[in-house]
């Protein structure tokens, strides 16, 4: 029986080609199955990377918005100097400065910091507080570097305010 089966299989070319084709198709199907598994694993890892990137995208957009708002804030100051900004702040409160003079310019990492010294005589604590609040909460990037408050001899309720303020701008 074995010999007749061998004779049929090997003597007939069509049957021989069919057996070879079945063997090749089986090998091809196994290779395809292995490749499909690799593609699924790769797809799963890419999906996790995509979800991580999407979560980081929200943070990047938030930081970008903060940077752009700060750049817009600095861009407003590009034409105005620290002296004119302080004068505008003083006139808004109703104060008059005895002396406002620029004291220096420093350059650091793409920004310019311009300093000015301000002296106001005969001012009460309420107006000093209002001035400091206006400077600190201004839409301009102003900051107070130093402040010195002294009483006057004529009236102990009035003070002499010496203030050093700076403004940060782009070159």
CATH homology group of the largest domain: Ribosomal protein S6/Translation elongation factor EF1B
Briefly, what CATH class of the largest domain?
Answer: Alpha Beta
Total domain count: 2
Number of strand segments? 4
Query: How far apart are the first and last residues' alpha carbons, in Å?
Result: 98 Å
Order of helices and strands: HHHEEHEE
Strand order of the largest sheet: 1-2-4-3
Beta content comes to 25-35%
Could you say which overall geometry the principal axes of the C-alpha atoms support? rod-shaped
- Can you tell me the CATH architecture of the largest domain? 2-Layer Sandwich
Mean pLDDT: 85
The main β sheet shows up as: 4 strands, antiparallel
Number of helices: 4
Structural class: alpha+beta
Rg estimate, integer Å: 40 Å
Share of residues in helices: 55-70%
Structural write-up:
The chain folds into 2 domains: 73 residues; 90 residues, Alpha-Beta Plaits, CATH 3.30.70.60. Helices cover 58% and strands 26% of the residues. It has 171 residues and is of the alpha+beta class. It has a 4-stranded antiparallel β-sheet with strand order 1-2-4-3. Helix 3 crosses helix 4. The longest helix is centred in the first third of the chain and has 65 residues. It is built from 4 helices and 4 strands.
